[in-house]
């Protein structure tokens, strides 16, 4: 196996100070995508720092990018990593959905993963206490069972609303005869914000697509887990948090496992050292007034069609607000998630901006456009950042809440449209940009409303401040999220019992 990090398997038996580690060891499987790997790595780091655990992060060969290798190498000594061997996916159609490719890759890797986990049991001298797979890794629970790992969990990097939908999906599959997008009424699930059919999770929109069947499969397979750990917190989703905590919805003999909100887990990169800026965009932010800049980014995998790029550019200019925009080449000829496996632009993104836009805005000091990437957590933490125009990926949402930045919602794919409904209609932490033929004007109005705290923007700012405080309190010792994780770890280290899933 290829060791993806600098630590190797030595950390399975020793900690960073050279003493033998007697704490639990946890194996963790991250299905493709940095948005899956990063929160799982943050969970591993928290287990190490607060519970004396060591961990092995297991990744797939298809995502062995320089970015991923650098990230894995940056993890502390208590967290090692390895990569599963490649599997053949050449039989899948070129247009196969990302969810299908990830699910197939995991299912076809079960034999290799079984061998890896059996090896970890030997090398850790019996300390391998648990296996944790992320949301598309449900089939890997079979590998953990075959290898004799006693505690098998799902880590759900999205939110409780999406989890509730997936847990109910085997029943909904039979109850909803047609496509979700054609439902005359919003989808209503226990404790959740009603979701209009077209905003339901994108992989569920077409029942004829193999990714739909995979999602139904995962919803049923989650019931094989001992627990589901969710990267969310009660204050942002009180309804489903209460429902999923009720006895009739969890426990070893119930319909699905116990659910533990343990978030927010975000990757804070530590900021700048000795006052030095680590990127030009941070230097530019240093020169802007407090809370004066709207940060625009569509995540590590999102890209807009060319016409929407143009409307966004003109809307930002029309708003009169300062902006920092991470721009990528457009998605025309493909899908809005074309950059999922590679966040670098395939073409020069500046060539697709309106003529004269850069000169009128950037040269005048009003805006800054950067290609492909920016240090997002540092940007959100910066005093000059006043709002975040976001695709509503859940990692980005949590980062925005942790740093107290109100949001403008522009969802693209996956669960992002459903997240936008939650944020705008349920939580009140964002204003959503509606689809319209006059989109540039609506973009300008929405950005101004949030940046200036006018109209609904005032309520958004107040709600985000409230959630920022709740998130911090939950992560403190004795807080709800910290207590939930401690309960999970206690279950891993209990040597008696084991339940009928063993």
Automatic annotation (TrEMBL):
* PANTHER family per the UniProt record, alphabetical: GLYCOSYLTRANSFERASE-RELATED, UDP-GLYCOSYLTRANSFERASE 72E1
Q: Tell me one GO molecular function of this protein.
A: UDP-glucosyltransferase activity
Q: What is this protein called?
A: Glycosyltransferase
Q: Which domain of life is it from?
A: Eukaryota
The protein's matches in CDD domains, at most eight in alphabetical order, are given as: GT1_Gtf-like
InterPro entries, from UniProt? UDP_glucos_trans, UDP_glycos_trans_CS
E.C. code: 2.4.1.-
Q: Gene3D superfamilies attached here?
A: Glycogen Phosphorylase B
UniProt KW keywords: Glycosyltransferase, Transferase
| Family affiliation | Belongs to the UDP-glycosyltransferase family.
């Amino acid at each position: 196996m290829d060791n993806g990090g600098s630590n190797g398997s030595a950390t399975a038996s020793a900690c960073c100070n050279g003493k033998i580690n007697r704490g639990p060891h946890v194996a963790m499987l991250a299905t493709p995508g940095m948005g899956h790997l990063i929160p799982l790595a943050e969970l591993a780091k928290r287990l190490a720092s607060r519970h004396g655990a060591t961990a092995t992060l297991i990744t797939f060969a298809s995502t062995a990018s320089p970015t991923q290798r650098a990230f894995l190498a940056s993890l502390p000594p208590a967290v090692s990593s390895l990569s599963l061997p490649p599997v053949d996916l050449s039989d899948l159609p070129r247009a196969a959905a990302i969810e299908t490719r990830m699910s197939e890759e995991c299912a076809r890797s079960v034999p290799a993963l079984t061998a890896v986990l059996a090896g970890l049991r030997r090398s850790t001298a019996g300390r391998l206490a648990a296996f944790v797979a992320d949301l598309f890794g449900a089939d890997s629970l079979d590998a953990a069972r075959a290898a004799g790992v006693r505690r098998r969990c799902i880590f759900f990097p999205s939110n409780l609303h999406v989890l509730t939908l997936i847990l109910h999906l085997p029943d909904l599959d039979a109850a909803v005869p047609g496509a979700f997008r054609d439902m005359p009424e919003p989808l209503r699930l226990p404790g959740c914000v009603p979701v209009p059919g077209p905003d339901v999770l994108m992989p569920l929109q077409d029942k004829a697509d193999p990714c739909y069947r995979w999602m139904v499969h995962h919803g049923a397979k989650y019931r094989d887990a001992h627990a589901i750990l969710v990267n969310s917190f009660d204050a942002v989703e009180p309804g489903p948090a209460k429902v999923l905590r009720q006895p009739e919805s969890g426990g070893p003999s119930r319909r699905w496992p116990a659910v533990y909100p343990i978030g927010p887990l975000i990757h804070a990169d530590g900021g700048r050292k000795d006052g030095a800026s680590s990127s030009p965009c941070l230097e530019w932010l240093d020169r802007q007034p407090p809370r004066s800049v709207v940060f625009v980014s569509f995540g590590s995998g999102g890209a807009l069609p060319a016409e929407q790029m143009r409307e966004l550019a003109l809307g930002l200019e029309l708003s009169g607000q300062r902006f920092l925009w991470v721009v990528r080449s457009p998605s025309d000829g493909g899908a809005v998630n074309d950059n999922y496996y590679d966040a670098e632009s395939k073409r020069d993104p500046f060539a697709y901006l309106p003529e004269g836009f850069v000169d009128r805005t950037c040269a005048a000091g009003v805006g800054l456009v950067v290609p492909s990437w920016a240090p997002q957590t540092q940007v959100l933490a910066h005093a000059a950042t006043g709002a975040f125009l976001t695709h509503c990926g859940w990692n980005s949402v949590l980062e925005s809440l942790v740093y107290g930045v109100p949001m403008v919602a522009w969802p693209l794919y996956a669960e992002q449209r459903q997240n936008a409904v939650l944020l705008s209609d349920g939580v009140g932490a964002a204003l959503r940009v509606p689809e319209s033929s006059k989109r540039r004007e609506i973009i300008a109005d929405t950005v101004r409303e949030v940046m200036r705290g006018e109209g609904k923007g005032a309520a958004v700012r107040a709600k985000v401040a409230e959630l920022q405080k709740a998130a911090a309190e939950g992560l403190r010792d004795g807080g709800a999220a910290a207590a939930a994780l401690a309960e999970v770890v206690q279950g891993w280290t209990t040597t008696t019992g084991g339940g009928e899933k063993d």
